[in-house]
Design a protein that fits this description.
14 helices; 2 domains; 25% helix; 544 residues; D-Maltodextrin-Binding Protein, domain 2; alpha+beta; Dipeptide-binding Protein, domain 3; five-stranded antiparallel sheet; seven-stranded mixed sheet; single chain; 22 strands
């Protein structure tokens, strides 16, 4: 039996060595006594309202930035080490065959409505995620459970792999070994919610979410502010912060001026020109994510035309994008799996800028010098950087005869145009996207984004379908040897990148955040600034 209470790291995480990177913005000062000091308020910015505050529906980082503070699941991902650690579950064991996970819950966990969390809440929350009427795009989190498909399809009244032993014990049984299962349970979709709130046809919980996280929702003024308050009964102890104000500020320059004026304590977008007054506030750190332009493979002109997709890849100058146009935050990508993740292939050639090769492939695709190729729509969500990237790609493609028309829309409209449904594609032919890995495993990007089972809102917005790719990714899930898994992922990546050119491969991400020097305790995690745990923060300045 493997006792997870030891917080043992998986072998594949050795590559990060994050402790050596010094990713904590904190001095030697201890947290202040919450009883003996003035109110502490932390203010950060989101560029738009979160599309949802329901953990079963979240797929984006705007929603995640709020949800991670309201909700908790059985386990969590330590933001510094990326190890899976206990959360609502104080410990767990895994059977030798890797099929049965037995979780023991803490007895001091309460929902924000005052009710104690019990094992039955875990079972109900997981069933809710799997129910078709919930329409969760994260249902795949629990698909490894025995009987999950039968339950979702209405062929069984309960999930065979979910068993409540007593109020503090629940077991999860898988239908087959599934290596990244624990990592997947750290995601917001696996959060625990109270049935009496979420079993509501009117869905009032969308505006008044209730979880068991360190903060509770106080108010949400659309397009203005979301206010969170410290939860006094949180099992991890009351946070040092009394209030968190999430300021909704769309314009990047406006947000920067607000930060300079003292209206924000951190800022997620560092300006390209870092002036002396904020130079000491900049914190840069790794981010396990990848950026790209997606092709909709169910729509013309990309359907069945890999040569066209390769031509576009060769036409775009990624070195110029990240070294000249937008320097300092990203590196040119050759593929899908970001550096630091087992399976990343530094020998993958990718598509370096080669205009002659782009022209040759464009002709081979049936469009010599672009003749006969109708203008293509490139969708982006509202952002200065997205706009600059789209305009540069537009200019690069114009040189070979490909005309792009840029569609810039807000986040909600953008997602609708990109995701489509399992049955029908969205209207976006090309779309700017970034994908952060919810857990540090190649599975978190290859299977979720490109497996044919996930076509549509589940993650495969590109509608990619390659049986050889699917088989390799499926095989990797059952392999206990990390090296063997990494080999499968490298082989699958080569198919998607070099054979099929499923994306316009743009960049591997890095993060940069501005923090006022009075903000202490921030863990600058490779999971991204929206996953920084606010319960670890405190403010250290005169009068705070």
């Amino acid at each position: 039996m493997i006792l997870a209470k030891r917080r043992a790291r998986a072998a594949f995480m050795a590559a990060f060595a994050l402790a050596a990177l010094g990713l904590v913005v904190a001095g030697c000062t201890s947290k202040p006594d919450p009883v003996s000091r003035p109110e502490q308020v932390y203010r950060f910015r989101l560029r738009e309202d979160p599309p949802t505050l329901d953990p079963a529906l979240v797929t984006d980082n705007l929603s995640e930035a709020v949800l991670v503070n309201l909700f908790r699941g059985l386990v969590a991902m330590d933001p510094a080490t990326l190890a899976v650690v206990p959360e609502v579950a104080e410990s767990w064991t895994v059977s030798p065959d890797g099929l049965t996970y037995a979780f023991r819950l803490r007895d001091d966990v309460f929902f924000h409505n005052g009710r104690r969390v019990i094992a039955g809440d875990v079972a109900w929350s997981f069933e809710r995620l799997l129910r078709p009427e919930t329409r969760s795009p994260r249902r795949w989190l629990l698909e490894p459970l025995e009987g999950s498909a039968e339950f979702t399809e209405g062929k069984a009244a309960r999930v065979a792999g979910l068993s409540v032993v007593d109020e503090r014990t629940i077991t999860l049984r898988l239908s087959k070994p599934f290596a990244p299962f624990l990592g997947m349970l750290t995601m917001s979709g696996a959060a625990i919610v109270p049935r009496e709130v979420y079993d509501d046809p009117a869905r009032a919980y969308l505006r008044a979410p209730i979880g068991c996280g360190p903060f509770r929702l106080a108010r949400w003024e659309q397009s203005s502010v979301i206010e969170l308050l410290a939860f006094d009964r949180h099992y991890g102890g009351r946070p040092a912060l009394d209030r968190v104000l999430v300021r909704i500020i769309e314009n990047r320059q406006t947000a920067l001026e607000e930060y300079r004026a003292g209206g924000l304590d951190s800022l997620d977008e560092v300006p390209r020109e870092v002036t002396p007054d904020i130079r000491d506030d900049v914190r840069r750190y790794p981010f396990i994510g990848v950026g790209y332009i997606g092709f909709n493979l169910d729509l013309p002109p990309f359907r069945g035309n890999a040569d066209l997709r390769k031509a576009i890849n060769y036409a775009v100058d990624k070195e110029y994008l990240w070294n000249v146009l937008l320097p300092g935050g990203n590196s040119p990508a050759r593929g899908i799996i970001p550096p630091g993740i087992p399976g990343h292939d530094p020998s993958l050639p990718g598509y370096p800028h080669d205009e002659a090769k782009a022209r040759s492939l464009l002709a081979k695709a049936g469009y010599p010098a672009g003749r006969g190729l109708a203008p293509i729509s490139l969708w982006v969500n509202t952002s200065d950087d997205n706009r600059a990237i789209a305009q540069q790609i537009q200019a690069d493609l114009k040189k070979i005869g490909v005309e792009l028309r840029i569609r810039e829309v807000d986040w909600g409209a953008y997602l609708k145009a990109v995701e489509g449904t399992p049955e029908a594609p969205g209207e976006a032919q090309m779309f700017r996207f970034g994908w952060y890995l919810d857990y540090p495993d190649a599975d978190a990007v290859l299977r979720l984004q490109l497996h044919s089972k996930n076509i549509g809102p589940l993650g495969n917005y590109f509608r990619y379908h390659n049986a050889a790719f699917d088989r390799l990714v499926d095989d990797a899930l059952a392999l206990p040897d990390p090296r063997a898994r990494a080999d499968r992922y490298r082989e699958a990546e080569r198919i998607a990148v070099m054979d099929d050119a499923v994306w316009l491969f743009l960049n591997y991400f890095e993060s940069a955040t501005l923090f006022k020097r009075h903000v202490k305790g921030a863990v600058l995690t490779p999971l991204g600034e929206f996953r920084i745990p606010l319960e670890r923060l405190w403010i250290e300045k005169a009068g705070a």
